[in-house]
């Protein structure tokens, strides 16, 4: 008998042969192993892999164009699985004078994007741009982010986010709203929502703006009301959401309004007592 | 220079028998003929100003800015060879960015100046390179308040309350020495800087100049290094030109009046 406690209860080498440790550790460490020891004869068929799932997550970002600007909202929750872990996460990031970036998905990747954007802003707007040359505008920010996201996914190391960029076109007047996600997929629309909101909020937003071109008829008040309503509905139905959120309104007259710690108003929970089949109160 | 022709000045990093490095001294000569740059460290921030000599009437007014930004909160003005200054600033930006990518916070001015001092000094140590032909005045505001440094071709890097370099440095220095930096605010310092540059321009009277002033202060610019607003600049230029015609005694009276105006 082998008296080494580490060997107790394990298959006997004399009977089964030495255990191949690479079976258990094959995938995540394959790359390091191949490069660390030249004596290793086993090679994994897997390439190097990195972050393959998010940890702390933020839920939907919802956004609308209206006739003279864009409006974005995102709640302040950072979930750890189903646990409401952080309730003070700011997921809307201002870039330059008139661009707003809303990020859902992994929060640590959000923070990385925050740093990338700060560096972009420093190189484009701070260095030698004293006399107000070409400002960083939303299309530039969006294109840059889409390159970053696509590059990261092509290296099998994605930033686990879905991003909405809002602001104005290069003419400084036309509202701009576009999306990019962890695969590098992009699209533009007058109504954009990420995550759960893409399923639940987009139909609500499209009630107001049925077709992309229709945003020119929408006032700021209409857009705002629609967004606030969608945030409340999301709070009812999305279990990873919070009723505390931030809302940004950017207008082409230069106004940039960043509202923090808003609450979902007018919640009605009377129906909740009649719901059956979810909690412990099974009938 | 007595040692010309002895060979000790032909190569960088070689001392002469009396202990001098001539290439570094020659670099200082290059600086001494450039437009004047000054920096002031006030109680609430810093002000940088340069006398930008206009070499051609064909140049677009207000173009080719001379004062640059290293990081959001750090500015630099320099006299001497412009391309050397550009390279110096690029290095400063690299240092500031690498600090930020490591520590996720903005670099402090003293730390940045330490690094830049090492970099500039390196250019006095090898035969394959020549020293920087600039004296740079670097100012900024960080968590420890305002800082002002001046860095020379030798790599010497010291903190100052008031610094001047370039052709009119002697005049500028003697004017700076009269100031009370503990009481001076950046808003007042803009006028003072405009006046000092105007006085320093006496040493280079045959050429036109453009005044360029930047500031960095928590109260006035939110800790960012930016050009002063056009109206403040024009007001400062106007005062400087007015003072120029008066006597010294009256200038000081004017100063007091200005101060009172500021307070009311």
UniProtKB/TrEMBL annotation, chain A:
Main subcellular location: cytoplasm
Superkingdom of this protein's organism:
Eukaryota
Q: Which Gene3D superfamilies match?
A: Glutamine Phosphoribosylpyrophosphate, subunit 1, domain 1 (3.60.20.10)
Q: Which GO terms describe its biological process?
A: proteasomal ubiquitin-independent protein catabolic process; proteasome-mediated ubiquitin-dependent protein catabolic process
Task: Look up the record and report any one GO term of the cellular component aspect.
Answer: nucleus
Signal peptide, first to last residue: none
Swiss-Prot/TrEMBL keywords: Cytoplasm, Nucleus, Proteasome
* Protein's cellular compartments: Cytoplasm; Nucleus
Q: What does this protein do?
A: Non-catalytic component of the proteasome.
Q: Which family does it belong to?
A: Belongs to the peptidase T1B family.
Protein's name in the database = Proteasome subunit beta
Automatic annotation (TrEMBL), chain B:
- Which superkingdom heads the taxonomic lineage of this protein's source? Eukaryota
Ranges of compositional bias, category Acidic residues? 242-264
Entry function: The proteasome degrades poly-ubiquitinated proteins in the cytoplasm and in the nucleus. It is essential for the regulated turnover of proteins and for the removal of misfolded proteins. The proteasome is a multicatalytic proteinase complex that is characterized by its ability to cleave peptides with Arg, Phe, Tyr, Leu, and Glu adjacent to the leaving group at neutral or slightly basic pH. It has an ATP-dependent proteolytic activity.
Subcellular location(s): the record lists: Cytoplasm; Nucleus
Provide a GO biological process annotation.
proteasomal ubiquitin-independent protein catabolic process
- Supply the PROSITE patterns for this chain: PROTEASOME_ALPHA_1 (PS00388), PROTEASOME_ALPHA_2 (PS51475)
The family classification in the record reads:
Belongs to the peptidase T1A family.
GO cellular component assignments = cytoplasm; nucleus; proteasome core complex, alpha-subunit complex
UniProt keyword annotations, A-Z: Cytoplasm, Nucleus, Proteasome
- Describe, as the record does, how this protein assembles with itself and its partners: The 26S proteasome consists of a 20S proteasome core and two 19S regulatory subunits.
The ranges of region (Disordered) come to 237-264
Is Transferase one of the keywords? no
InterPro entries per the record?
Answer: Ntn_hydrolases_N (IPR029055), Proteasome_alpha (IPR050115), Proteasome_alpha-type (IPR023332), Proteasome_asu_N (IPR000426), Proteasome_sua/b (IPR001353)
Q: Which CDD domains match?
A: proteasome_alpha_type_3
- In Swiss-Prot or TrEMBL terms, this protein is called Proteasome subunit alpha type
Where's the Proteasome alpha-type subunits domain? 8-30
């Amino acid at each position: 008998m082998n008296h080494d406690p580490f060997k107790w209860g394990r298959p006997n080498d004399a009977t089964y042969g030495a255990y191949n440790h690479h079976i258990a550790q094959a995938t995540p460490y394959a790359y390091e192993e191949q490069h660390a020891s030249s004596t290793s004869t086993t090679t994994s068929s897997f390439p190097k892999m990195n972050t393959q799932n998010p940890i702390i997550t933020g839920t939907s970002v919802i956004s609308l164009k209206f006739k003279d600007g864009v409006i974005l909202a995102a709640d302040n929750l950072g979930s750890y699985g189903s646990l409401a872990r952080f309730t003070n996460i700011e997921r809307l990031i201002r870039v330059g004078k008139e661009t707003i970036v809303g990020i859902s998905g992994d929060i640590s990747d959000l923070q990385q994007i925050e740093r990338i954007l700060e560096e972009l802003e420093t190189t484009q707007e701070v260095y030698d741009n004293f006399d107000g040359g070409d400002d960083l505008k939303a299309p530039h920010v969006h294109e840059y982010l889409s390159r970053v996201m696509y590059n990261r996914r092509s290296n099998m190391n994605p930033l686990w986010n879905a991003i909405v960029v809002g602001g104005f076109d290069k003419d400084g007047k036309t509202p701009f709203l576009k999306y990019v996600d962890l695969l590098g997929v992009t699209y533009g629309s007058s109504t954009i929502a990420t995550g759960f909101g893409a399923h639940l909020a987009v139909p609500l937003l499209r009630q107001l703006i049925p077709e992309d071109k229709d945003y020119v008829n929408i006032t700021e008040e209409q857009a705002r009301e629609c967004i606030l309503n969608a945030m409340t509905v999301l709070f009812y139905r999305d279990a990873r959401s919070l009723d505390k959120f931030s809302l940004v309104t950017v207008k082409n007259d230069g106004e940039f309004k960043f509202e923090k710690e808003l609450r979902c108003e007018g919640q009605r929970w009377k129906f909740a007592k009649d719901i059956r089949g979810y909690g412990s109160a099974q009938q | 220079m007595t040692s010309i022709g002895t060979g000790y000045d032909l190569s960088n990093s070689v001392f002469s028998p009396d202990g001098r490095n001539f290439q570094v001294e020659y670099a200082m000569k290059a600086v001494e003929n450039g437009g004047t740059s000054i920096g002031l460290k006030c109680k609430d921030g810093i002000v940088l100003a340069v006398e930008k000599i206009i070499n051609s009437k064909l140049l677009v007014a207000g173009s080719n800015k001379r004062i640059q930004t290293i990081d959001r909160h750090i500015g630099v003005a320099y006299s001497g060879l412009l391309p050397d200054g550009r390279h110096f600033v690029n290095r400063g930006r690299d240092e500031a960015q690498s600090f930020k990518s490591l520590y996720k916070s903005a670099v402090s001015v003293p730390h940045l100046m330490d690094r830049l001092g090492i970099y500039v000094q390196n250019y006095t140590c090898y035969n394959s390179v020549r020293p920087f032909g600039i004296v740079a005045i670097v100012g900024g505001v960080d968590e420890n308040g305002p800082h002002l440094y001046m860095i020379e071709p030798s790599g010497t890097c010291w903190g100052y309350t008031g610094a001047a370099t370039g052709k009119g440095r002697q005049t500028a220095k003697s004017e700076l020495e009269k100031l009370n930096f503990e009481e001076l605010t950046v808003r007042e310092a803009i006028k003072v800087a405009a006046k000092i540059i105007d006085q320093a321009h006496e040493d280079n009277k045959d050429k036109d100049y453009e005044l360029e002033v930047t500031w960095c202060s928590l109260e006035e610019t939110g800790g960012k290094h930016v050009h002063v607003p056009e109206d403040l600049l024009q007001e400062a230029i106007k005062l400087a030109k007015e003072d120029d015609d008066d006597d010294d005694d009256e200038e000081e009276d004017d100063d007091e009046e200005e101060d009172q105006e500021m307070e009311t």
